[in-house]
Amino acid sequence: MDAKAMEVILEGSPLGAGLKEVAAKVLKGQRISPEEGLMMFETAPLSMLGALANFIRESKHGHKTYFNRNFHIEPTNVCVFSCKFCSYSRLYANREEGWELSMDDMLDKVKEYDNKPITEVHIVGGVHPKMDIHYFAELLRKIKAHRPGLHIKGFTAVELDYMFRKAKMTRTEGMQYLHEAGLDSLPGGGAEIFDSAIREQICADKVDAEGWLDIHATAHALGMHSNATMLYGHIESYAHRIDHMERLRSMQDRTGGFNTFIPLKFRNHDNEMSHVPETTLLEDLKMYAMARIYMDNFPHIKAYWPMLGRQQAQLTLSFGVNDMDGTIDDSTKIYSMAGSEEQNPSMTTRQLVDLIKQAGRQPVERDTLYNEIRDYSLVPLEDQANLN
Ligand code: V47
Ligand code: SF4
Description:
- This protein has helices spanning 3-12, 17-27, 34-43, 46-61, 87-93, 103-111, 133-146, 157-166, 171-181, 196-202, 209-221, 238-255, 281-294, 305-308, 310-316, 334-337, 349-358, 381-384; strands spanning 64-68, 70-73, 120-123, 151-154, 185-186, 225-232, 258-265, 300-301, 323-326, 362-366, 372-375.
- It is α/β, with parallel strands linked by helices.
- Helix 12 links the parallel strand 6 (225-232) and strand 7.
- Iron/sulfur cluster binds next to helix 5.
């Protein structure tokens, strides 16, 4: 639907004047303020948010829905921090099963993909006191020596902050060192909710909002790209979500280095916040739609399908989302332990393509930086049968 048609529908709708005004701004491509964002969160019907978010998504990307072919390595589940929403911190506190992969284990994992058309490895894990920056630089060099073309997206700002401080390096020195060793970009984890009062209650001991933002700004200054996340649906309010998105949006105005915003739904299984109920599907769709509407300078909004489940991820494609992450092939535990929908998430290319097509969208394989690799709506059906 084009903007004109949407304006006509809005005009005849029973929405309040304030909401109609904000919706009209969105349709004209104008930025909404934090106050307007909060009003939308609090009062707008989901149908209106969905229509606006879908309008933006289709203006930016048409029906294109991106995914990549990637796999994850989780070096360890041991973590010195104690985030209350994390199933690892409970594990560590109880001295239950901790595990760590050796350098060879991790390289073997990379070698498993030797003849497969994978473009990215995503490395993220707990913060192990003995795995320092030099250890990880060595890992990066070895991966690059083995497969130079593989994009390495690795280490949350939480892991990096710990590594840099331990090595007594400035953020620029540390980032440069890892970048030279082979680190190409940063994933978006560790952001949680930036508000200090909420952070104090859910993840008091790890890097704060300013540190998280500064580490990403440091990467952007070196020409690296990164993602941003927000852990929502626990003890935060809509105002905290707006504050979080506002800080990211302002930083993006300055650096332009973020690729994707990924809202992460809080899952309450087996952690110290199990008493906090999880959000409903309606609330999740609202969150994705608001993310698309508010983050006007973020090119992409991603639904991380293992957390949401496949069918809900399909639904988000009509609520602003244009990226489905990847094939993943994940033997990692952080999400499955927290109660995510998928225990060992992995999809073949064929399954991902089908999932996107069933939702009426156009599947496009991308690399980490969103260069298009293959448009699967153009691949003949007989060739699609052989995708893996
Ligand atoms: O920061 C931990 C989250 C994040 C729970 O950049 C939980 O492409 C929900 O950021 N319920 C790490 N979430 C993962 C992450 C990520 C994932 C996929 C792709 C990308 C990307 C980034 O996992 C943590 C935290 O917010 N997390 N525990 C939980 N109970
Ligand atoms: Fe450690 Fe990350 Fe879990 Fe926090 S969320 S306890 S930093 S693994």
